[in-house]
Amino acid sequence: MFFTQNATRITDRNEEARRFRKKCEMSFPQPKPEVPQLPQHLLRTIDCQQGAVRAVRFNADGNYLLSCGSDKSLKLWSVSRGTLLKTYSGHGYEVLDADGSYDNSQLCSCSSDKTVILWDVATGQVTRKLRGHAGKVNCVQFNEEATVILSGSIDGTVRCWDTRSRKFDPIQILDEAQDGVSSLKVSEHELLTGSVDGRVRRYDLRMGQLHVDFINSPITCVCFSADAQCTLTSSLDSTVRLLDKSTGEMLGEYTGHKMKGYKLDCCLSSKDTHVLSCSEDGHVYCWDLVEGSLTLKLPVGKAVVQSLSFHPSETRLLTAMEGRVQVWGAEPEEAEEDEDVVVVKQEKV
Amino acid sequence: MASDGDSDQDFVTFGTPLEPLEEDEPLRKPIPVHEQTVKDEKGRYQRFHGAFTGGFSAGYFNTVGTKEGWTPSTFVSSRQQKAGRQNARPEDFMDEEDLGEHGIAPRQIITTADFASGRKDLIGDKARAITSLSAPIPGDTVLEDLVAPARSSMGVELLRRMGWKDGQGVGPRVKRRLCKQEADPATRVLALPCLPTVHQNHGTRRMMMDLHGLGYRGLNPLAALRGGPGAGNINLFTMDSDRTTNLFGEDKKGQRRRGGVAGQGFGVGAMEDDDEDIYHRDTMSNYDAVLGGEEPGDGLYGWTAPQQYNRKKKVHSKDAAYLGKILEGFTLGSDKMETKTIFPPPDLPRDFRPVHYFRPVVDMSSVSPMVAQALLTSRGHMAQEEPSKGGRHQLDSAQRRELLGETALQGPSSVFDLLKVEDRERLSSLRRPSSETTSGPRPPTELPPRQPIPGEGRAAVVAAGVAAAAAKASAQKALSSRFAPPAEQQQEALSVWSGPAAQAQAGQTFKPFERTAHKQARYDLYIDKLKQGDRDALELSLDPSMTEWERGRERDEFVRAALLYKPSSSSLSCRFTRGKHDDAVEADTVEVTRDQENDVDDKQAAVKMKMFGKLTRDSFEWHPDKLLCKRFNVPDPYPGSGFVGMPKVKRDKFSVFNFLTVSESATASASPAPQAVKPSEPGKRSRWDVSGQAGALEKERKEKDPLSEFLSVARIEASGSGPDTSTTDGPTTDPTVEPDTEKEEEEEESRPPMDLFKAIFASSSDEKSSSSSEGESEEEEEEGVRSKAGTGPQISNQFNVNTSPPAPPVSVSATPSQHTDVMFKMPSGPAAAPPPQDQEMEEEEFGPRLPPPSSTLTAESRPAPTPSAKNDKHKKKCKEKYKAKKHGKHKKDKKQKKKHKRHKHKGKQKKSGRKEESSDSSSEGSDGNSQEEGGGVSTEELLRRLKSIRGKNLQ
């Protein structure tokens, strides 16, 4: 019994929980659901000293962060102390995205100089410089085992670079997108790309299929949910949508923020409870995933929130605005009730 | 030693001399093996690797590799080169040292086997084999190899071929007895005295045959060893090899008795006292100084003498018979040369001009007699003067029979004879109009055939070209007759298509009229009938409802197509791949692109309505790279596929309408299609339930409502063309949407009002022939949406304005009674009695059509007083308003909203709420709700209103 429960999908579990709760409702008052913590307290501000920070990313375990600067440098910081650990320089133009390998041994970054660079973390040397894109490279990701680097470019292609062999040619070029590829994510055997042509493409390597979801607005960011059942897409019509991965149906729509012209990030919280998105009005919007209601509007600053990244396991958020990276966390000493109040307050604001 | 010193200089030393031993020197330690170094010819040290692992010459720097590294020999398939494969020779495994002077297989110039004496070799081989077996050390043929046998020369070989045998003399035969008598006493003692005499006798000179010094003469075996019967002749050609084999004693000769050893090689015997002739002196006169030399001509040649001496006389006699002068060195030929016979060219007539005119083929029947006459006089004859003159191949069986004087066969001569009289008449009557339409070729007064329409005429010519030569004349007729193809062509088509070849390849026919389905269907029918051998296939397969002109055209086209794409050519064509720009294929590709555009439109509409899911999703086959799969630890989904990426497949059309039809059909039989859409929902809803069900319901409605609205819109628009069918489909889509939601809420929440069920189920039962009407409705949908998408709005509005007034009465009369019926029929319907306000509801709702005010699409296509542009604007405004409204509500009180939402859906509360909202919304909405007060409203209308209200709530 226990094992089967474990094996069921999250949704099934939710279903069971719902039934259970319904039964309980007959006899007991409905227990108050545990309010998930939100990263609403500014823990640290890091001035990166590398021009505007184009993207900020947690590493695989969330102890370090990578900041992509417009001064062609990529910097590695410690999240907990806010100290600079290493600067990786070698790009010819501003760095647009970066990712760390699962074992923290390698980094990859992409840049406006049309290249993708594979870095050695410890030495800071360029392990490999991958050329081939015809335009600036918007997004880059390792696959699960860091054997492949996937990069999406403004030229409308996603290139799969092999990190294992000596070949400098991509393994495969995915040129299905009709416009620039703005965002891409990799899961175990799937590749999710969002393109400016308003389509989210999911390449299923296991099934050998390509699923195209039409959004009708340039996609700025795509994400997988943690349970790998849903995809999150943010588009330039100032909407974040939660789509069912298998059918493409829309499960939720999150609006209120402003995303009209910038390629801004969105993400899901580590427990898939909330949807977060950057906004051009200087806030990070945080919606309840299921309810679709705005639970938190985090004021980051006056300018556009360029990028954000959620901690892989904890309630911690990184935001990038102008030249600064801010680390947000939930304060543990605060009680849940208080938080709730705060949330309501902020919502009213 | 000193005296030896100067003589030492004369010696050639070979090898390294040992150091002189000194007796008093202490014994040296033997040099250990590892210090015994060997250097190659360039002075480099060489290491000994072991006798069987390469010796001194293993590899590159004492490795097994080469400079480039060690590469194992790659496998090369010798399947293709089996014939050319050679067995490896030992030399292939030897290096230059082995082939060198001191190697195991030294290379030196030796006489090849071709020039060696085969016979001796055989013997030698045998001898070697025997000795190797019998010798004390097996394989001890080394000694024999050391004493290398010389091979006999080419001359000897030639002689042997000519019949000469070893031991025989060369030259005229000498009687044995005579020779004996002469030579016996001398040879007994010593062979030498005999030899010069023989020489002088025969007058032959020795050639330099060996490598011995000039004048050297070895042991004379005949003289010295045999001394027997052959001693009289000199054996010039017995060589050292013979002697050596003799020495080893295996030869036959060895078995002969041996005389005393004598000769130069052995010096002077102890018994002999004269030694002046030990070294035989030879003179140059014994040798030929000139090649060829002067012919002896003394008739002393034996039978082996050159032929010219034997034949000389004969040749001369022949030459003498020739009277002319024979050039020096030439003789008369033996066989006569063949003389070529040349025929003179024929005498040309005086007025011949070397120009050829191709006479035009003129049909006698179509040409006026005057012209024919003129042609006859000018050319001498007309081409088609008499059809029988065209050659015997153009005769039919009857004509041939006449020519041959045979009697006619018994039985019907034609298929026509087999037909009934009526049929024949019918056929002839059928044929008549066609012949009438073709201005008959009979009247021969008009000179040229009428000007053909250029394209058609050419086409006819093409057809004629494709047809056999026999149809040439009939093609002329086709030219003259505009539409109806001549009977000959039809006949030919029939014969071609009813043949076994056509039967064999059924279904492989080319479809020339693919673009127009009806025409193709007719053509297919025609072909089918042709295959069955139907004579009047053409007439039967044409559409009688068409005009005569159209039919005539089609008749012509069909026959031409049948001839052009006759089965033989199609069987040929199946060997070729069709070109990219084939007309049919081209049409397909066009379709594909058009599809894509449509898709986008549909999707945009779907996105606008937030109907994500099937409508916005496309799934394609996609082939990942093999290596990519490997890197992702995923098995290759298409292991055999040769390409990567997306295949160029023809995308099947996937539009809103496909989806709608699917759902429609699904409602009737509860097919899995709508369920397929569902499954994610329960799980998702559970999430919603965590926070409250209101959200879930809202979301659900978000998804569902636009669909139904969309449908209803399509219906309304389609209602212009068919008001009856318009009522059938609209509501049927809803059951897919609503029962599900209803069922789920059933436990907790109060029943939905009866009219809803009525609306749903009554209508579905209303459609008497749902299957038949579905097809129509599909088309209607398309029409409706097309009009919507394109120049739609105005037209659709007009439609509605015109058609909506009559619609209500019809539905009113029909629906109420049916509603009650259906209520009891409902399988999952509520057992409890319907709430009391159902009646009022019905009355209220069944008023004249109430325009749903909010939803985007309905607003767009609703009968609106404003023009379309305004309409759009208005729509947006509405949307915004509702949005604002919603947000306001949202902020106002969450809890209340939740509550509201929870019950809104099905309960009475919801009903009433909706009422209010609908009223105010309609006041806000695009058009007045003046229609609401009307008496009855169709079920479809009701549903639409429901939906619109919900949609509004939603927004």
Provide structural commentary.
- The complex is a heterodimer of chains A (349) and B (955).
- Chain A is mainly beta and 349 residues long.
- Chain A is built from three helices and 28 strands.
- Chain A has helices at 2-7, 10-27, 336-348; strands at 41-47, 53-58, 64-69, 73-78, 84-89, 95-100, 106-111, 115-120, 126-131, 137-142, 148-153, 158-162, 172-174, 181-186, 190-195, 199-204, 209-214, 219-224, 230-235, 239-244, 250-255, 266-268, 274-278, 283-288, 294-299, 305-310, 316-321, 324-329.
- In chain A, the strands form seven sheets. Chain A has a four-stranded antiparallel sheet with strand order 1-28-27-26, with no helix packed on it. In chain A, strands 2-3-4-5 form a four-stranded antiparallel sheet, with no helix packed on it.
- Chain A starts with a helix and ends with a helix.
- Residues 1-8 and 333-349 of chain A have low confidence and may be disordered.
- The N terminus of chain B is likely disordered.
- Helices cover 50% and strands 1% of the residues of chain B.
- Chain B is mainly α and 955 residues long.
- Chain B has a two-stranded antiparallel ribbon with strand order 1-2.
- In chain B, strand 1 and strand 2 (45-46) form a beta hairpin.
- Chain B contains 41 helices and three strands.
- At the A-B interface, helix 2, strand 13, strand 17, strand 20 and strand 21 of A face helix 24, strand 3, helix 25, helix 28 and helix 29 of B.
- Strand 17 of chain A pairs antiparallel with strand 3 (617-621) of chain B, so a sheet runs across the interface.
